[in-house]
Write a structure and sequence with these properties.
Structural class of chain A: mainly alpha
Oligomer: heterodimer
Helix content of chain A: 55-70%
Largest sheet of chain A: 2 strands, antiparallel
Structural class of chain B: mainly alpha
Largest sheet of chain B: none
Order of helices and strands of chain B: HHHHHHHHHH
Radius of gyration of chain A: 19 Å
Radius of gyration of chain B: 20 Å
Largest interface: A-B, 98 and 77 residues
Shape of chain A: globular
Strand content of chain B: under 5%
Amino acid sequence: MSHVALIHAVQDPASSGLPLVGSQNDSPNLETASRAARLRQLVDLHIDFVARVLRNAGSPASEIDDDVQRTFIVAAKRLDDVRQGSEKSFLLQIALRVAAHARRTVARRREVSADESMEMVESAGSPEQLTDQKRARQMLDQVLDQMDSDLRTVFVLYEFEELNMAEIAEALSIPRGTVASRLRRARVDFRERVSWLERSPLAEVKP
Amino acid sequence: MKEPRRLRSESRSPLEKAMLSAGMAYRSSPEARAKTLASLGLAGAVATSTGTAAAGTALAISKVGWGKWLMAATAVGAASAVPVGFWAWQSAEPVPEPIVQVSASRSGGEVKSSRELDTRAPGEFQRHPVSAEPSAKLAEAAPAAPLSVHPKSVPAKPVNRGAPLTAELGALDSARVALGGGDAAGALALLDAYGRDYPRGRLGLEAEVLRIHALARSGQKGIARKRAEAFLERHPNSVLASRVRGFTEE
């Protein structure tokens, strides 16, 4: 599937394409049942993966449920084009597009509301005292949001999803050397930002 | 090209490790799974007439038709779970907009600060409260009535918010079945009951979408339009928005 087609599908999941399970044009038969079973298995096996990629790639927490739905709806419309065993990679590509769209939407909202006050995020004090996962998640969101999106994507896939560089290169359709370069820069960026948080009692962030 | 070690395995910073762990620990919510299955037209947690397998549900369609398929269909997603084909079958109603659209943000729409971003542990997701206002009072309601719950309207015996999601799914499914069978008034009554039983239900948005459809079907199109406008005002980017947008144009 071309990236243009995938972008279009993400922007309008209801655009013409393969029908979802149970549409009027389906002739209920074993093939439909098989497709439904495959689709259900897709959800059962990969929904956590999709949610995690969306969340770490920039989908706001408040939109995660919707973005998960969008991802699988797009995937369902193109499922027949996906060979067995490649579903996870396919979902990954869709999720990254959905997350990119979500980030752009959030960015537009921030432009509209320019008069919002600066948000103060308090660090957890000394690193040794940090045990609250919620606080860690909040700080992770802050750091990831500040990263360049290209670097963020590679960083998320390597460090959180533990894909190797070849897999990342294939998923993003970029050379492996580019993956290595972005990962190197992303890790430096991440560590510098975390180091800054460790040193600062308060971290000022834009909402 | 040698692969570097994962940061988590080589980091000596507790903060760094905690942040990396938080990134790896994220999981989807039960609601996300239920809604996803519903939006794909797959049976959820409630058993169908021919069994629990989605495959069995699909086969049942050919035997019992669309109306009874709705009875067998489960899970949430309300109207968004109803495939386009069903709406065409109900020929009296115009075919609504496509099931899902990723809509652009609206100017002046809701803006969330980073503080509002979810910092809860995975699995702890809070939904927007659902209006407990009975449908019969809607004719007297102000335009674009807010969807928030007022403490005074909370029933004396609300169901525990921790009630299983399946109970909420079943309640909404009953309303959807009624609506699918042409009983819009019955669907509205069931939705009123849902609102009383689950004043802070996790499926409040789905219930509201279903209510808007039922109001339109029962002839209360003006009220349906007002509630649709209010819904879009609060949730312009919801995956359910496209199911509601058509009612603002009537």
